[in-house]
Amino acid sequence: MADIRPFDTIDALSVAAAEELLSIAAEAVRERGVCHVALSGGSTPKQLFQILARLGRNAAPWEQIHLWWGDERTVAPDHADSNFKMTKDALLDPLGLINFQRIEGELDPTEAASKYTAALESLRPAKDQWPVFDYVMLGMGPDGHTASLFPNTPALDATSEVVVANPVDSPLTKGPTTRITMTASTLNWARQIRFLIAGADKAEPLWQVLRGARDPKTYPSQLIRPFLGHLVWYVDKAAAAKLDEAR
Predict the structure, then answer these.
(1) Is 181 within a domain?
(2) Those residues with Cβ within 8 angstroms of residue 98's Cβ, 6 or more apart along the chain or in another chain
(3) Relative to the CA of 204, which of 33, 62, 69, 213 has its CA 20 to 30 Å away?
(4) What is the domain extent for residue 20?
(5) d(CA 87, CA 126)
(6) 6-43 pLDDT, tens per residue?
(7) What's the CATH number where 188 sits?
(8) Beta 163-170 vs 175-182: how paired, if at all?
C-alpha cells in the first residue's frame, strides 16, 4: 500500500513536509556528513521553500546540504518560468545558500543534460552505480506527469540514462518544447522520495496513479517506485478527494 499522508490544507501539508525535510537532512548529515536534495518546481514547493526561508539558516545544517533540481525548462536562469529562479527567489537568496548545482537550461538541451549527468558523477557510490540522493521532492501535474516525465514522451523509456533532454508537446507546456529531466531510474535510487500534491485538479490523476491500472505511459508518476528507499505521498484534501471513493 502507498504511504499517503493527508492534510486538510496546502498550508498544513507544506509545514509538515518542511519539518520532515529538515529532519531527513539532519539525519543524513549526521550519518554521511552531507545531504543531497533534488528539488521540484511548482507552487507547492515554493510555499515549502518560503517556510524554510522563514525558519532561517540555523534551522538546518545548510553548509552540508547540496541542492539539485529534478528537471528544468529550456530557459535562462533569470526567466520567469525557470525552476531555478523560483527556488533562488524563495529560498537561496533569503538564506544566502551557495551549495547548489543548477541545470543550465539556457544551453542546448542535449548539452545541458550531458553536463548535469557529469555533475551527478559525484553522487555515485561506485563507478558502475547510479547517483543516490538523500531526498527527492516531486510534484505531479493534472496529466499525471512528474519532474518533466510527460505522458507518451521518449524519456519514459530511458532506462540507462541519468538525465535526458525530453521533447514534449502538451497543453501544460503550451505546445512543443524540450525539457531537461532526471529519468525515473535516477529518481528511484533516492533514499527518500516525497510527492507534494495539492489541488482539486490532481484528484483524478492521483486516483489513477495510486488506484488505477498500471499505465505509466499515460500516468508517468507510476514510474516512481523506489528501488531501496521510501516513498511518501503528501496530499491535501482536495487532491485526495477521490481516493476513498468506491469504483
Answers:
(1) yes
(2) none
(3) 69
(4) 3-236
(5) 30
(6) 999 999 999 999 999 999 999 999 999 999 999 999 88
(7) 3.40.50.1360
(8) antiparallel
Beta-strand relationship, 192-197 and 135-138:
parallel
How far apart (Å, rounded) are the C-alpha atoms in residues 231 and 188? 9
* CA distances, 225 to each of 24, 29, 54, 193 (Å): 19, 25, 32, 9
The string of DSSP codes covering 112-173 is HHHHHHHHGGGG-SSTTS----SEEEE---TTS-BTTB-TT-GGGG-SS-SEEEEEEEEGGG
- Smallest CA-to-CA distance from 94 within 130, 44, 146, 59 is with 59
d(CA 207, CA 242): 6
Sign of the alpha-carbon dihedral angle for 226, 28, 118, 126 = negative
> What tens digit of pLDDT does each residue of 141-165 get?
999 999 999 999 999 999 999 999 9
Residues with Cβ within 8 Å of 148's Cβ and at least 6 positions away in sequence, in order, are 71, 72, 155, 166, 168, 179, 180, 181
C-alpha cell at 15: 509545514
Angle in degrees, 0-180, between the axes of helices 10-32 and 43-55, rounded to the nearest 10: 60
Q: Look up residue 110 and give its three cell numbers.
A: 542535449
